[in-house]
Amino acid sequence: TEELLRKTEKLNVAGQLAAGIAHEIRNPLTALKGFAKLMCTANEENKQRYYHIMQEEFNRIELILGELLILAKPQVVDYRPHDPLAILDEVIQLLSTEAILNNVIIELKAITELPYVNCERNQLKQVFVNVIKNAIEAMPKGGGITIHVQKQGNSVVMDFIDQGQGIAEDRLPRIGEPFYTTKEKGTGLGLMVSFAIIEEHHGHISYQSKVGVGTTVHIKLPAVLP
Ligand code: ADP
Ligand code: MG
User: Fold this and answer.
1) What distance in angstroms lies between residue 126's CA and the mean position of ligand 2's atoms?
2) 108 pairs with which residues across the strands?
3) Residue 152's beta-bridge partner residues?
4) Which of 35, 120, 148, 210 has its CA 20 to 30 A from that of 161?
5) Rounded CA separation 217/208 (Å)
6) What is the DSSP string of the chain?
7) Residue 193: nearest ligand to its CA?
8) If we measure between CA atoms, which residue out of 13, 126, 146 comes closest to residue 69?
9) Rounded Cα gap, residues 49 and 115, in angstroms
10) Half-sphere exposure (Cβ direction) of 148: Cα atoms closer than 13 Å
11) pTM: predicted TM-score of the whole model, two decimal places
């Protein structure tokens, strides 16, 4: 019965996700259909306008599908020991322009001789990108992000601490729920994907937050023992 229960649970999650995807893609599609029809009879000036709106809607669909595709396993699942600091450095580099443009300073603080973690490199990179991007987006007036990396027992633990707007206590349970977003242009898929990846890595991710003070994202991953 346990196996059956698990399968039913999986079906439910799949069903919820399918409903969400259908809904999120139908909206831009409906808009696209309408504007395509208008295009047929529009004058040159309006055509330009409609074209730009359609472009936005296409981008929206592309963004949603792009995030969902990360969930699909990579062709070759290649778990290998990697230095978590090297991955973090790469991600910080990747987001440095965005950070500078938003007056955000990212600081990485780690112990020496940190153990490696067994991971699918690109997937873990994706998690760090999602978490740090959210931290940047939570600080529209700028601020700091501190990333602490340590060893704790047989695990590598990372804390991503921001000085952003924070998350109200009653909203914390919704974090990681598919399509839960408070942003005008958000998809609400980044953390669902990240939670799934961390789980797949036998790790743990949790959120701690205080409105007006900031948010701490805690990620724990099994260390590769020497
Ligand atoms: P998106 O970024 O597209 O909204 P996510 O899944 O990445 O989707 O995040 C879901 C929601 O969680 C965000 O819309 C935001 O409300 C909240 N959130 C996530 N990280 C933070 C953070 N560091 N500070 C404040 N709110 C956050
Ligand atoms: Mg996000």
Assistant:
1) 11
2) 147
3) 155
4) 120
5) 7
6) -HHHHHHHHHHHHHHHHHHHHHHHHHHHHHHHHHHHHHHHH--HHHHHHHHHHHHHHHHHHHHHHHHHHHHSPPSS---EEE-HHHHHHHHHHHTHHHHHHTTEEEEEEE-SSPPPEEE-HHHHHHHHHHHHHHHHHT-TT-EEEEEEEEEETTEEEEEEEE-S----GGGGGGTTSTT---STT--S-HHHHHHHHHHHTT-EEEEEEETTTEEEEEEEEEBPP-
7) 1
8) 126
9) 54
10) 10
11) 0.87
List the shell of residues around ion ligand 2, using CB closer than 5 Å: 134, 190
Contact 216, 208 (CB under 8 A): yes
**Taking the chain (226 residues) in consecutive chunks of 10 residues, what is each chunk's mean pLDDT?**
64 76 91 94 93 94 88 74 97 97 97 94 94 98 98 97 97 92 92 92 96 98 91
Q: Whose CA is nearest to atom 13 of ligand 1?
A: 181
pLDDT of residue 7: 61
Q: Determine whether the shortest distance from the Cβ of 126 to ligand 1 is under 6 A.
A: no
**Quick one: CA dihedral 215, 87, 189, 15, positive or negative?**
negative
The token pair at 204 is 């743990």
Mention every residue, 6+ apart, whose C-beta is less than 8 A from residue 34. none
Nearest ligand 1 atom to alpha carbon 160: 23
Q: Does the beta carbon of 194 lie inside 6 Å of ligand 1?
A: no
What pLDDT sits at residue 2? 65
